[in-house]
Amino acid sequence: MTRRAVTGALSVGAFLLLWQFVGSHQIVSASLISYPTQIVQSMGAMIASGELAANGAVSLTEFAYGLLPAIVAGIALGLTLALNRTVRLLCDPVLTAIYQAPAIAFVPIVVVWFGIGMSSKVAMVFFSALFPVMINTTTGVEGISETWVRAVRAYGGSLFHVVTKAILPGALPSIMTGVRLALGRATVALIAAEMYASFNGIGRLVQQYSAADRAPEIFVLVIVISGFGYACVLFVRALEGWLAKWRLEFEQ
Amino acid sequence: MAARVRAVGRHEPLVLGLIGSLGFLALWQAAASAGWINPAILSDPLRIAHAFVAQLASGQLIADAEVSATEFAIAFAASLVLGIALGLAMGVSCTLEYTLDPFMWFLYSSPLIVVYPLIVVWLGFGFRTVVMIAFLLTVVSIVVNTVAGVRGVDPALVQAVRVFGGNRWDVVRLAVLPSAAPMILAGVRIGLSRTLHGAVLGEMFGSNAGLGFRMTVYGEKIQTSDVFVPLVIFVVIGVCATAVTRAFERRLQSWR
Description:
By secondary structure, chain A is mainly α. Helices cover 86% and strands 0% of the residues of chain A.
């Protein structure tokens, strides 16, 4: 055990104990800050009643429906932009402007366009995930050295071969950076869209419990959403490791 | 002739970018005017310009912009001062860094959007909540980058200041701050866009004033052109903020 891990664990432990003491003895009202054991109880109740599973399933579905097309489209569009200098320069200011604006600012307009149901959430996830993937793909392709492309060409490779044998593997690290950014942005966009207007989903629960001033349940949702965010990070890291191995074999 | 070609080449990104942007607006306007798209839902540039003028004339836009700008300024200034101070302290003292690290890591990696209901419960609906959300989002990125910057300082430099009889403050001022500056500035750039994000988020869900709040009001009434006015302002602020910090970073680099 390193000193960092020990100190960190002690500090988190002390924090939780203090929180428990202050909350359960009502030194600060428990309805404001709750306390750890109460949060665990609430989590048990929310799991038992099935509301966490039912709303989580809705959110996950919206997330998947928006994210997967966004990754595919983002890579395709990013490639197109990187390979056509003129098109890229034409589109650059508009794309950069949209990319740099806070994605959640688009929630009201997307709800006007797609309604309160599932499609506005899918659209928000797609929209917020598309840009990081697209822009990082373009950056990645631009960083590929000419020699790779020339090598494939020298062996008589077509444009298809150049893309699959040189450009995609070469741009992979940058594309994965885009995917990681996309996962984070899409999570926030999805929760925001569900909070803004929806019938179900985790964001809807956040809104419902915050309207009722229910601190323990809000903390449960904080844990659930942060846990999901952390799972995304682990997943991308595993995927990166796996792809790096594939890329290495490829180079040999 | 060659000179002219070279000049066009140098300005090519600017020229093509301008053509692309104007073309985008013209196409949008043409599609709406020709009736290919429903302007009540998608709006068009001229309608948005009219909405902008109307909101400006009524005084609503200025009032909301003032609220948003104040929230943004307070949150950003507080994050800047406290973030760099805390980051320096954590960078200098290992114990402090190890103690706070798990909490910083949690704040940095989890989607803070879910924390907003708690802040509303604690601070009430309105100004203070918006400032707090924007502050929390911003300060973490500045702290994390400052710590990383301090950790990257060359120990020989610190040694040199010590040899010449410098105290702890001299070490920070003469060795740590200058070499950590680029990392800190990168944190500030990320922080700036996070402040904007936090202010929009806080106003949309935890306030009853400001550009973000106004957007939700127009959205509920399905006044698309009116929704676009604050949205365009956010886009412009986002672009300007990034451009300004990028330019600042470049100047710092050349100065170093």
